[in-house]
Structure formats: structure tokens, C-alpha cells
């Protein structure tokens, strides 16, 4: 039993040393065969330190606690005495857990803690806060939860759609059906060809221009078309560089 007490005290001091929110360690002492008294009063605590679950008495009065983390006291199953008075508790939505816990465990609370802020509930016992006081908190939490779910689903759908579009674009083949009467290409559409191709192009255009002048430059004369010898080279370049397949009909 002596070894168990020494182990419990060592565990308490270890937890208190790794807690950065306190200036001095809490004073711990054993109470009976399985009880542990932890005195953390007047230490300027801004949050409750991590304490052993076998704590039976906990003194946290006269600190700077403004709230208590949800579920903090639930693991102290053997707790039979608690003191939380003289702390500047801020009674907003974050105090809801402590209020419910105090209502269920009034018998073990030495002195009921009071609200300090906001001014509308200053000097009012936390247990006197009604359910209506926290009604807006439930609505806000529900609304935020639904909003987050909708946004998450929308983002997932957008990502899936973008990935699907990218995959479809990579695997797509483009086929152009060229009719016989449109089998030529205008000179302006092949300006990016290599110099030797452009030279051949200008040569072909010069020949066509001479024939055009001999016909009197009629308004309904079609624009000069390329020699069909360039077509295989264009098709090959489109297929290799841009994965575009062109099928002549």
C-alpha cells in the first residue's frame, strides 16, 4: 500500500511538471487507502492541469479559470469534493458543460462558482443559467455543422469532376472529317509551318495568283488553297504533337 501511495504521488507530480499553465505545482496528499487530495488553489491557473483520475478532492478556488474543457470532470469517477469558487468564469457557450456538470453534482461542490462576465449575468451562479440562455448555442453549432458538411461534399464533388475531366481530356481523340470540296487549307492557317514548308506554300500561292489574275479576279472566286502534298505532313504533326487524328473522307 505504501508503494501504491508513492507511485500515485509520483504520477501527480509528473503530470504537474509537464503542465505549462501553472507557476507552482499543486499540493497533493493521500486520503485513505485509495483517495487523493489535490490542492491547486491560488496558483493563477488559467486552465485545469492534467490530474490523476483517482482524485477524490479537488481544490481549484482563487485562480484565473474562465471556463472548463468539456468532459474534464467526467473521468474523476471517485470525486466527492470540489471547490471552484473565486474564478472569473466567462458564462458564454463554453460554460455549458460546467453548468450541466454542476447541476448533476451539486452535493460535492463546496461553494457554487459565479459568473463574472458578461455583464448581463455578472455575479449570477452558473447553475442558475437557464436552458434558454444556451438555446442559441445549439442552433449555431447545428448550423455550422450542416454548413461544414455541405461545403465538404461540394468540394469533394468538384475535385472528382476535375479529375474526371482531366482523365477524359487525356484519353480523348479528335477526328476531323474533311470533305473533298474542302480538302485544301488556306495559307493563313499554316503560318507556324517550318521555313521550307512556307517556301513551298508561297510557291504554290504564286502559281494560283497568276491563274486568278487571268480569270479577271471575279468576286465569287474561291481563296487559294494549298497543294495537297502538304496535307500528310500537317496531319502527322497534329497527331504527334497534339494527339489529334484527322480522317479524310
From TrEMBL:
The gene is GP9. Residues 24-57 form the LRRNT domain. It is a single-pass type I membrane protein. Residues 1-28 form the signal peptide. Residues 87-138 form the LRRCT domain. This is Glycoprotein IX (platelet). It comes from the Eukaryota. InterPro entries: Cys-rich_flank_reg_C, GPIb-IX-V_Complex, LRR_dom_sf, LRRNT. It comes from Oreochromis aureus. The chain crosses the membrane at residues 145-166.
Amino acid at each position: 500500500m505504501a508503494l501504491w501511495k508513492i507511485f500515485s504521488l509520483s504520477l501527480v507530480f509528473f503530470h504537474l511538471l509537464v503542465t505549462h499553465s501553472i507557476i507552482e505545482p499543486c499540493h497533493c496528499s493521500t486520503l485513505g487507502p485509495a483517495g487523493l487530495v489535490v490542492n491547486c488553489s491560488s496558483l493563477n491557473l488559467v486552465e485545469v492541469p492534467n490530474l490523476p483520475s483517482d482524485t477524490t478532492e479537488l481544490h481549484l478556488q482563487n485562480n484565473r479559470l474562465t471556463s472548463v474543457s468539456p468532459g474534464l470532470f467526467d473521468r474523476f469517477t471517485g470525486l466527492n469534493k470540489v471547490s471552484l469558487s473565486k474564478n472569473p468564469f466567462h458564462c458564454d457557450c463554453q460554460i455549458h458543460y460546467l453548468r450541466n456538470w454542476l447541476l448533476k453534482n451539486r452535493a460535492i461542490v463546496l461553494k457554487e462558482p459565479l459568473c463574472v462576465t458578461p455583464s448581463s449575468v455578472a455575479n449570477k451562479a452558473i447553475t442558475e443559467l437557464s436552458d434558454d440562455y444556451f438555446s442559441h448555442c445549439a442552433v449555431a453549432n447545428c448550423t455550422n455543422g450542416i454548413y461544414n458538411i455541405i461545403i465538404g461534399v461540394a468540394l469533394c464533388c468538384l475535385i472528382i469532376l476535375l479529375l474526371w475531366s482531366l482523365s477524359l481530356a487525356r484519353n480523348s481523340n479528335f477526328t476531323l472529317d474533311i470533305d473533298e470540296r474542302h480538302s485544301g487549307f488556306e495559307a493563313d492557317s499554316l503560318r507556324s509551318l517550318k521555313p521550307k514548308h512556307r517556301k513551298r506554300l508561297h510557291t504554290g500561292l504564286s502559281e494560283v495568283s497568276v491563274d486568278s489574275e487571268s480569270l479577271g479576279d471575279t468576286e465569287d472566286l474561291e481563296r487559294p488553297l494549298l497543294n495537297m502534298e502538304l496535307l500528310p505532313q500537317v496531319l502527322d504533326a497534329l497527331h504527334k504533337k497534339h494527339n489529334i487524328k484527322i480522317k479524310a473522307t
